[in-house]
Amino acid sequence: MKKLQKLPIGDSSFESIRLDNCVYVDKTRHIFKMIDEGKYYFMSRPRRFGKSLTVSTLECLFRGRRELFGGLWIEGNSGWEWESHPVILLDFNEISHDTPENLKYSLRRRLKKTADDYEIVSDSALIMDQFRELIVGLSRKTGRRVVILIDEYDKPLIDHLGKGRDALDIAKASRDILKSFFGVLKGGSVASKLRFVFITGVSKFSRVSIFSELNNLVDITMSEPYADMLGYTQEDICTVFRPYIKALSEAVGDSENRIIAKLETFYNGYRFSKRNIRVYNPFSVLSALLQKKFGNYWFETGTPTFLVNLLRERNYPVAALENLELDEQIFSVFDIEHLRPEPVLFQTGYITIRHVEDRVYTFGYPNEEVRISFLKCLMFAHVPGNGVDQSLFLKLSGYLEKENFGLFFETMSSIFASIPYAIETKRDEAYFHTVFYLAVCASGVNADSEILTCRGRIDMAVEFQDKIYIIEFKCNQSAEAAISQIHEKSYADRYRQRGKKIILMGIDFSTEKRNIAEWKTEEQ
Questions:
Q1: In CATH, what number is assigned to the domain containing residue 119?
Q2: Do 45 and 194 sit in the same domain of this protein?
Q3: Which residues make Cβ contacts (< 8 Å) with residue 242, sequence separation at least 6?
Q4: Helices and strands, counts by H and E, the chain
Q5: Which of 72, 347, 352, 504 is least buried, going by the fewest C-beta atoms within 10 A?
Q6: Same domain for 496 and 402?
């Protein structure tokens, strides 16, 4: 049996991936298109999605490392001249930013290191002057225009968000430093010396806050031609990774087609433009194929504490994240002083585009890995772990599947009772809905919330192989009122063609009791 190429988990160096005979999914067609058609680019993508590898590929390409590109699209189809250009690479993962002073000092050190490599002398005290002189000096010394590659530009900002007022002040000061620093690239003495500029990050801060002085930057974050530039397509999974899928199917005793379907359910679903093409999370796919088991690999590499806190602070109706409708203008607004949860959730990869109609975007979780993991994280933020036996959550799905309503509502009441009064937010229908929804989802069931119909919105639906629950919530009313609304709005009509048992469930919450006051079920 032919030995498989190594899977490059955690390796974002194009050079080492190619030299070590690791799998590389060819993205050079996109890279050439970008270089051929423009000069200044910005792209944001979630963490561990291939941004650093793209930067590394560009560095090798502009350094003329043709030997690394053998067999790839750009080597045989582009007419690339393989000339070597001077490259300034700034990876903000490697630049200190705990204080504004250290940010400036570390930037200065990086620029000096590049100057030393090319034996260029710069004695400027200001980093802006040092940056400008380095670009001009490199172009003069080599006789070629300079390439600027900046990876994770926003790390000095997002690492300080959600950590209090002092940390926010550091982020704002760092923002002002970066604004002036990037503005150098637009200056008249520099622009003619540049061959190509590429900036990446997780977030897309507003042009006013960061890139106001670099207003010729082309943002391809949601550009249709580049929607699949990062991440793996379905074709990649079925061709490049077919031998690894076969190995996984043999290891777990399942068919290759079922493995592909499971990979799609767990790790596919990211959509970054109006163009209806979805990509897989590359880190999770590689991890699952290497470990030969499915897991929450991407989510476990970084807990979204800041996002969870932001949603709690805003008393955000998290159940609405399943079917969130927003105007496209929301994605041009991201400012550290006026954060909105929706663009943060999208840019960090916790929600993605599901559907686009005119200027209205519908969003939801990209896949099961993100959905289950994020909902559990949100649940434990709403329900303290020390207040209730965590195994109770896992039993909820079994009670619903067996239609054991007594134990289901007894368990759910225990969960609500475990929440200390001191940490409560406003106890209204939205709050009860949120906690109920999170608890049920954390048990692993297939639940949807805020489902739009022609007569209204269904509060919640839970689907099993043989049955569907249609759930309506009320607050300080009655369970009968909830059941009546399901009938009046004909919510069950949406599900009648599925051939499954339909169970209506009405639930009334009491703000006085701070718990479930009454429940009722009805089978159809």
A1: 3.40.50
A2: yes
A3: 256
A4: 21, 13
A5: 72
A6: yes
